[in-house]
Design brief:
CATH class of the largest domain: Mainly Alpha
Order of helices and strands: HHHHHHEEHHHHHEEHHHHHHH
CATH superfamily of the largest domain: MFS general substrate transporter like domains
Radius of gyration: 22 Å
Strand content: under 5%
Largest sheet: 2 strands, antiparallel
Number of helices: 18
Structural class: mainly alpha
Shape: globular
Length: about 500
């Protein structure tokens, strides 16, 4: 995946034909903007933990394999177990947020991150570790829902797009920091993830350090105000009026804003799966397109890079420390590509950007497949010739760049824009679920596939990238410049 956010959260008027809620005021007082940025950044820390906890397992895989003596199948299950928890957390977060409030759910997510980190750091078996990873995955699912929901509900309209980008920026930053921490810890332990530091092995510290940002997240969540939308829905109008004044300025007509939000809440259409039925193949065609975008985003194998790149490079003869450094470099490239996508998606459009990304990924993945076909030796003695090793490094990072500057961002923009208002929330939920399933399938299968034939595995990913070119060209419609209420 890109490790990206799930939109299936608390009911909100995304795409409503009525004015949007908190932040519908055209401008926020300049003296309040700093406060809005602070509470947005605090909420986006959940995205940082999302990215960190999703990808930190990358550096720990080889240590886990050696410590517990597990094979490729069990390794795949351990790494992918977090995805099962993520699906559950994302499914429940919206309901809990509507019932108990956004802030309480943020705190619950922070506690789950912390407990999972400590448990993952001190497991007594591989299956015990998988259980703790499922718990951490639930926290990831919660963060993927609650942060973008909260930000959308507190951000003034004028700044909503830029403030909403905090979440994606936090995710890719979390990925990068996790790889940097992995490399630093492995290097401090003598280049071995099983090297000992303060009585524990390096891989244990990699998984356990997440408790620190989780604690910061809990503290910051305790400092920021509740969403005005939730307060109004709960009948806490005085508190809502105070929060609206804080984020929109005291000159705003708080009573008018409250009345507007009350009207939106009363007219909300709860998403139903039945709304998506009616097409030739069961679902409406536009829903199948959304599912296709979600699935192709995962079938190109992006999460192989984020979850397994350290053992991938070790499998072709690169030592542990250098493999973790390469993983960190890849995560920095991911950040740069994401920035490029944010700058270009509204300029050149969603479809051209996706086509460029698909073509670039297909070429880069094919080059990886060719390079890995030249590996010789077995076990710890596998090597690549100099030329093929250089091609593998360059093409793998080019793949990350092309993905980050296109599909990593475009898919989530499209899923938020492409569906008609009446089915948007339900269609988003189905497409997001398809993405979790595809993510799990790629993640759980890679270790065994790589052991069977690494070159063929990457050529298969290249084939999916090539097919995505045809899919985008045939089925994806440009949404740039089209109002949400005009989608049909």
């Amino acid at each position: 995946m890109s490790v990206t956010q799930q939109p299936d959260g608390p009911t909100r008027p995304t795409g409503s034909t009525k004015p949007a809620e908190p932040g519908a005021a055209e401008v926020a007082s300049s003296d309040r903007l700093g406060f809005v940025v602070f509470i947005t950044a605090a909420a986006a820390l959940g995205g940082f933990l999302f990215g960190y906890d999703s990808s930190v397992i990358n550096g720990a895989v080889s240590g886990i394999q050696d410590r517990f003596g597990v094979g490729d199948g069990v390794t795949g299950l351990i790494v992918s177990s977090a995805l099962l928890g993520s699906a559950l957390g994302a499914a429940l977060a919206g309901r809990f947020a509507d019932r108990y409030g956004r802030i309480k759910v943020m705190k619950a997510g922070a506690l789950l991150f912390a407990v999972s980190a400590v448990g993952s750091m001190l497991p007594f078996s591989a299956w015990d570790l998988a259980g703790w990873r499922i718990l951490g995955g639930a926290a990831i699912g919660i963060a993927s829902v609650i942060a973008p929901t909260y930000i959308a509900e507190v951000a003034p309209t004028r700044y909503r797009g830029r403030l909403a980008s905090f979440q994606q920026a936090a995710i890719v930053l979390g990925i990068a920091i996790s790889q940097l921490v992995n490399w630093v810890l492995a290097d401090a332990a003598g280049g071995d993830t099983r090297g000992r530091l303060l009585g524990l092995e390096a891989w244990q510290w990699m998984l356990g350090i997440c408790v620190l940002p989780a604690a910061v997240y809990f503290v910051l969540a305790s400092m920021i105000p509740e969403s005005p939308r939730y307060l109004i829905a709960a009948g806490r109008l005085d508190e809502a009026r105070a929060v609206l004044g804080d984020v929109e300025g005291r000159t705003a007509d708080a009573d008018a804003r409250i009345a507007e939000i009350q009207g939106l809440i009363a007219s909300d259409h709860r998403p139903r799966f039945g709304d998506l039925l009616g097409g030739r193949f069961g679902l409406l065609p536009i829903v199948w397109v959304g599912i296709g975008l979600s699935v192709f985003q995962q079938l190109v194998g992006i999460n192989v890079i984020f979850y397994y790149s350290s053992i991938l490079w070790q499998s072709v003869g690169i030592d542990q420390s250098n493999s973790l450094l390469i993983s960190f470099i890849g995560s920095v490239i991911n950040i740069l590509g994401t920035v490029v996508a944010i700058l270009l998606v509204d300029r050149i459009g969603r479809k051209p950007l996706a086509l460029i990304g698909s073509a670039g990924m297909a070429i880069a993945l094919a080059a990886c497949g060719w390079a890995f076909s030249s590996a010789t030796g077995s076990g710890d003695a596998v090597v690549l010739p100099d030329l093929q090793g250089t091609v593998a490094l360059i093409s793998a990072n080019a793949f990350v760049l092309f993905f980050a500057m296109s599909w990593g961002v475009v898919v989530w923009v499209m899923l938020g824009e492409m569906f008609p208002n009446r089915i948007r929330a339900a269609a988003l939920s189905v497409a997001a679920s398809a993405q979790w399933i595809a993510n799990w399938a790629i993640t759980v299968s890679f270790p065994s596939l790589a052991r069977w034939n690494l070159s063929a595995t990457y050529l298969a990913y290249a084939g999916f990238a090539a097919l995505s070119v045809l899919f985008v060209a045939r089925f994806m419609k440009e949404t740039k410049g089209i109002r949400l209420e005009d989608m049909g």
